[in-house]
Hydroxymethylglutaryl-CoA synthase
Amino acid sequence: MASSSWPENVGIRAIEVIFPSQYVDQTELEQFDGASTGKYTIGLGQAKMGFCSDREDVNSLCLTVVSRLLERHQIKHTEIGRLEVGTETIVDKSKSVKSVLMQLFAESGNTDIEGLDTTNACYGGTAALFNAANWIESSSWDGRYALAVCADIAVYAKGAARPTGGAGAIAMLVGPHAPLVLERGLRATHMEHAYDFYKPDLGSEYPVVDGKLSIQCYLSALDICYRLYRKKFEKQHPEQSGAGLDNFDAILFHTPFCKLVQKSVGRLSFNDFLLSSEDKRVEKFAGLERFSTATLEGSYFDRDVEKAFLTQSAEVFEAKTKKSLLLANQVGNMYTPSVYSGLVSLLIGVPAAQLVDKRIGVFSYGSGLAASMYSIKVTKDAAAFEQFVDKLAYVQPMLNSREKVVPEQFSSLMEVREKNNHAAPYTPTGSISALFPGTYYLKDVDALHRRTYERTPTISNGVH
Ligand code: HMG
């Protein structure tokens, strides 16, 4: 097919985020866990951690976020032709989350919806988004929208990793003429076999995690994706060769904890330094010449390199990334939705006018491992973009209206989840009144493990 006949400007036409209505404060959690003061809040950069009681599972999170998107954006169920789910929170080894979501479409009679679930740690959401966009650009496209949905409940056993949990869901409506366009030909992917974080115990929600290795894998995948992205970008835009990070107006990262993202910006700057000509180094990286013999492989945990490039990139972090960390800081690692919660945070944190016609870099990482760097171009149409962003006005008030729970209660709710994971028959005991309006929740699981969901009342005709 000739490129001129492709649908134009394929990308994200609407985005919806949800997160748990309850959270635990990370300062209180430090005390409760006997960690040194500041370890979770300063060392990891986390303020609050959202969590779900046994009333919510991956199916209910997806039911909630998809319903909200369709209702609030007034999209008819018949207008969806593809629905992809990215998740690593598996409640059934055969039955997909997508098939559960088909309940929402039953009344409309629309069963002609392609797409299923994709799993690889935190990367599944990006796979879902790419699949959705690829469908729109393919010969299979029938002119309808696609939905890319990502949701996870990130929980860790007691110990060092527990404060890096979180939960949430994102749904993205994908189609042509989008306010956020996925730039064609600007995707760089790196996948390899690693045992940095994985879930071999199918009876448990908890992963097996090698924390240090996971950080090394993340940084190494970042290096590789960034260099490949730069190459592809420079081929498309030779006039901007060598500009490196300057080619992005904002940069988003998968965020297991905020501190790693700050270090990642430093890491990209270190890559720019290593890839710079002698002249450029003198001009842009004055005082850092002593690192010219440093290597990527030798520097994952090199404190001198880390500190020097953290300092060097501090302004870039402030200007291009910091605003994207709001939800990660306030809710924690959502796994598959994490990097897209970064997109939402950026959209609500920066005045819309400042983002019009700008390029946003995105780094998505999932352990195991799969990673991509790609870019999104914001539309030139300021009015359309403003309308798109206005739809996210609910996010900050929803964050503010959450209920704080003490670590003792959080810990016992985790034990309830742990004990009853895959129990059948089972009736959850978690509070229903604590949930936000319009939230789907698990009513019960019957003796044959069949799950039934109900919804808390919505406010004003489903417009929350
Ligand atoms: P740890 O090893 O106990 O922590 O757990 P630490 O001792 O390395 O301390 C963390 C930081 O806090 C350090 O900062 C300390 O110095 C600092 P750094 O030196 O590295 O800059 N610190 C303090 N700062 C201020 N005041 C204090 C204080 N004490 C210490 N009092 C670890 C940390 C991340 C390993 C653990 O939480 C973990 O295993 N988390 C899960 C794995 C993870 O998040 N990995 C990230 C990359 S992999 C990824 O992103 C994929 C993932 O999302 C899964 C998926 O793909 O599905 C996880």
User: Anything to note?
Assistant: The first strand starts at residue 11 and ends at 18.
